[in-house]
Specification:
two-stranded antiparallel sheet, 4-stranded antiparallel beta sheet, about 5% strand, alpha+beta, single chain, 14 helices, about 70% helix
């Protein structure tokens, strides 16, 4: 073949060539098309029908708002659904349903229980429904597929009942377990708190008076004792002064008695000492009156002492005057009693002796009181010195006690809250599953999708017919038209001899054309009828 002819680009075949190809190869298209469609269509109808029953279960929120009763179960519905699904799809539960409804009767004769369980798990489908906003699970669908529509509905109903009952039991069990756990923790906290209270009570009883809370009272008591000690010291000093005065006065009385017996009675012995004592007592009274009221014991006692001293001075003056004017030989020097018209009056010397004795007793009492006060002051000072140590020890005990008490109160509040939540769950007022759509009774099979298979059969027939016709044309090396011949020959075609057909050949060709048209029409009618039947009866 010449080079210019070999390098010339091949012309694309036009519509006439395709039409000529179709007229030549129509049998190679019609027969494979119909056979391919018929095979796929028959397979679609020979496959067993599987019906799927489904139900919609709503996750209903608690009847009581959470601001009043907080739930004590897991709020993650996804995790709880996974747990419930695992329990329901367990081998024991599924075999129980299989035996109850007599599922997979033919397969059970030749398959093991584990294989039956695996088959049933594949026929069960759980589909979650989530909200559009926060993607929380608000509902879920339960599906079961079976060749029998009523059996599919029954199994779906069983699975729905299991989901509802398992959710209630799981929530109640979890709620009760939470309450029991909090109760046990509360008992431990109660025992720990009782031990801390007993330890704190024992410590306070052991160191009563040295506790930090008694610091101010101890300081006040110590201050009062120190004031009382100072008063006792002052009173002891006054008592000692009174003792010196009484002893001096008693000695003067003794001198007076001696001088009286000797005949010298013109000297007023003892009056200056009494006057000095009165001045001293009045000075003390003025000093005490500037600090205390007239009801104060020291002020009242000092007034009584002044009154006694004044009476003593009067009696002494009267006695001295009586002795000074008494005649000689009169028995006027008796020291014990002096006669009077009204009765007997105690002699000043005897009264001084009684006062001196009372003064000595007072001095002894004052000294004993001072010793007791000093001992008490020393004890309270020791308490104050030990107060920082007791404060640290008490702080440690109190801290442990406060921690135990806080823990106990927290557990008590949680336990009470948990009991409310448990009661709520027992009354089925918590989060529950409610059936929105009951298990459906399917009227059409879920699979296989025969309409899709019918359309696929048409597509498969087309592909097979086109492939058959194109393959036959590709393998045929004959020249069927003038254009193909021109492409093969290096020179122009001078003349063309048309086909010469006899009457029988033309008649045979017409019969073949009618047969092909009839076959194509019947095939098309069969395809349309099968597709329409599948669409209506699918």
């Amino acid at each position: 073949m010449p080079e210019e002819f070999e390098g010339a680009p091949a012309e694309r075949p036009d519509f006439k060539e395709y039409w000529a190809l179709a007229r030549r190869r129509y049998w190679y298209f019609i027969i494979p098309f119909f056979l391919g469609w018929a095979v796929v269509f028959a397979i679609g109808w020979l496959l067993p029908a599987v019906y799927r029953s489904g139900t919609l279960i709503l996750v209903e929120q608690p009847a009581v708002p959470q601001q009043y009763v907080l739930p004590n179960v897991s709020s993650n519905l996804q995790d709880r659904l996974d747990s419930i699904t695992q329990q329901i799809l367990s081998r024991t539960r599924l075999l129980r349903i299989v035996d109850k409804l007599n599922l997979y009767a033919e397969q059970r004769a030749r398959n093991s229980p584990d294989e039956i369980v695996d088959r049933m798990r594949k026929d069960i489908e759980i589909e979650l429904v989530r909200s559009t906003g926060d993607r929380q699970v608000t509902a879920f669908n339960v599906y079961y597929s079976s060749p029998d529509p009523r059996l599919a509905q029954q199994v779906t109903s069983e699975l729905t009942s299991l989901f509802i009952s398992e959710n209630l039991e799981a929530r109640q069990q979890q709620s009760e377990n939470t309450t029991q756990f909090l109760q046990s923790q509360l008992e431990d906290a109660r025992r720990s708190l009782a031990e801390q209270e007993q330890r704190l009570r024992k410590y306070k009883d052991q160191y009563l008076g040295e506790l930090p809370g008694q610091l101010q009272s101890n300081i006040q008591i110590l201050s009062g004792m120190q004031t009382q000690l100072q008063q006792e010291d002052d009173a002891l000093g006054r008592a000692k002064q009174q003792n010196a005065y009484l002893e001096s006065l008693l000695s003067q009385y003794r001198s007076l008695e001696g001088s009286t017996s000797a005949g010298t009675t013109n000297v007023p012995v003892g009056l200056p000492a009494i006057d000095q004592e009165l001045e001293r007592l009045r000075a003390q009274l003025a000093d005490l009156s500037s600090h205390y009221t007239d009801r104060h014991p020291d002020v009242r006692k000092l007034k009584e002492q002044i009154a006694k001293t004044e009476r003593m001075k009067e009696r002494l003056t009267t006695e001295l005057q009586a002795k000074a004017v008494a005649p000689a030989g009169t028995d006027a020097n008796k020291p014990e009693l002096a006669g009077s018209g009204d009765g007997k009056v105690i002699s000043p010397a005897v009264e001084v002796r009684s006062q001196l004795k009372a003064n000595q007793i007072e001095i002894a009492n004052r000294q004993q009181s001072i010793k007791e006060l000093e001992a008490k002051i020393a004890d309270y000072q020791a308490r104050l010195n030990r107060t920082p140590v007791r404060e640290q020890q008490l702080a440690d005990l109190t801290r442990d006690y406060d921690q135990s008490r806080t823990n106990y109160e927290s557990l008590l509040a949680k336990k009470n809250q948990s009991e409310l939540a448990t009661n709520l769950e027992k009354r089925q007022q918590g989060e529950t599953f409610r059936i929105i759509d009951p298990p459906s009774l399917p009227s059409k099979p879920y699979k296989p999708n025969r309409l899709v298979l019918a359309l696929g059969a048409v597509f498969a027939g087309l592909v097979l017919g086109i492939a058959s016709a194109a393959g036959t044309e590709f393998l045929d090396d004959r020249v069927h038209n003038e254009d193909a011949l021109r492409r093969l020959l290096p020179t122009e075609v001078i003349a063309e001899i048309p086909p010469v057909l006899s009457g029988e050949d033309e008649h045979a060709n017409r019969r073949m054309a009618w047969a092909a048209a009839l076959s194509a029409g019947l095939s098309l009618m069969a395809v349309l009828a099968g597709t329409a039947f599948t669409f209506l009866k699918g």
